[in-house]
Amino acid sequence: xxxxxxxxxxxxxxxxxxxxxxxxxxxxxxxxxxxxxxxxxxxxxxxxxxxxxxxxxxxxxxxxxxxxxxxxxxxxxxxxxxxxxxxxxxxxxxxxxxxxxxxxxxxxxxxxxxxxxxxxxxxxxxxxxxxxxxxxxxxxxxxxxxxxxxxxxxxxxxxxxxxxxxxxxxxxxxxxxxxxxxxxxxxxxxxxxxxxxxxxxxxxxxxxxxxxxxxxxxxxxxxxxxxxxxxxxxxxxxxxxxxxxxxxxxxxxxxxxxxxxxxxxxxxxxxxxxxxxxxxxxxxxxxxxxxxxxxxxxxxxxxxxxxxxxxxxxxxxxxxx
Amino acid sequence: xxxxxxxxxxxxxxxxxxxxxxxxxxxxxxxxxxxxxxxxxxxxxxxxxxxxxxxxxxxxxxxxxxxxxxxxxxxxxxxxxxxxxxxxxxxxxxxxxxxxxxxxxxxxxxxxxxxxxxxxxxxxxxxxxxxxxxxxxxxxxxxxxxxxxxxxxxxxxxxxxxxxxxxxxxxxxxxxxxxxxxxxxxxxxxxxxxxxxxxxxxxxxxxxxxxxxxxxxxxxxxxxxxxxxxxxxxxxxxxxxxxxxxxxxxxxxxxxxxxxxxx
Lengths: 321, 263
Prior knowledge:
A: alpha/beta; Alpha-Beta Plaits; 2 domains; six-stranded mixed beta sheet; B: 263 residues
């Protein structure tokens, strides 16, 4: 059987609605966070889990990390049911919630780590080896004696990640680990996750809204929307279906020049140039170039593929999310 | 066990980080102590009570010195529940009741010791009729320290129950304000329990709130004579065990129906 095995998972929440004027009782509304979600994950996979806000991603992570009990359905991770024998199960997993903190705010992070060492009963030698390995990979060297409260967001995220990996979990759940990070920190974090996955065959499930994260890390993605699994496969296959348009930015030598283009092409005036969005399927690029050249001497021109975020937005729209 | 000792040590250390808060707390508690004693002096000047004034001043100072022990003041822990940060604690291989018990205890112990020492020294230097008197006897002092320790265990058990309820209501503020009021009155912090009418005292001293500071203080001043001590300690221990069992049961029930707030 697969390392992670999820079958018909369902979870419902009750949400309080703002009461109407004069009403004493609050109205309750049921939200189905997960509706019959099933999937399998093999050991050592690195999987992206995407979907718009409120799709049920975090709920899945919380169920698989033993925090929440589902209403119905089955799940096993490494042969264990997460919400049964919680204490035994969580010894083998690591979790990072990007928007929460696990390390203690006012004390040096090294102290938080040594508490984690005792919590997970890590032998001293193993701990020292693992800590120096992680500190190097995450570039934490000088920060170990700094209290969390004095760190920047990027430093904090690296410190948090180190905390989640000290006990060398077989399975790592990452819930938006790159939220709020700058470009350098993001790249470093991605490199680190790749390294951890390769070096220790750690299975990683990553939820994020940053499509660059997914493109850089995850050969496989699952798309979740309104509590249902909508797609499971490679990112390339997913995008190919939606990646139909290209964008041309063009500037002419003469001010009066204005290309005459067919209906299917979208043209916007932008500064002293134009932004042209076309579908190569309908209007081949060679023909477009011909039309553009007829309008006058071209000073500069760039052709760009579609932005991955736009693609995902299109996809969510098409899936009715 | 190492885990629980470790979180205890961690919380102890954290408490020492807030030096400004300690100083502020001391100033505030000293101020309250002086005001309360001024009020009781005025009362005694008008109509002397059956209880000697020196017992009342000792009672007030000990209550003020260990004030931190009573009210829940681990804001971080409450915030964790309110905002969902508790999710992390739930995915640790620990027994959560014990984990939080140790955390609460460390905070209460360190928080009150750091304040109590300077305050009691200050109170001891005050003139007769204002300050704190010596304990009734050496055995009384030792018994009162034992009772203080039991009182600490009892108040931690109680706070852990509050925590368990907070996890259910998810917002502690309203209901905690009510519990705090009960705590302040029934533990003797506002008016020494020794000044309540005798018929009231018979009931109030049996409640868990009286086990926290009232019992140790009465042993200190000699209000409870040595022969009464075993009964007092037994009552304290009884409440502690009962509250711990109740808290453990609530925590177990909570885990099946948990909601994590904030996405």
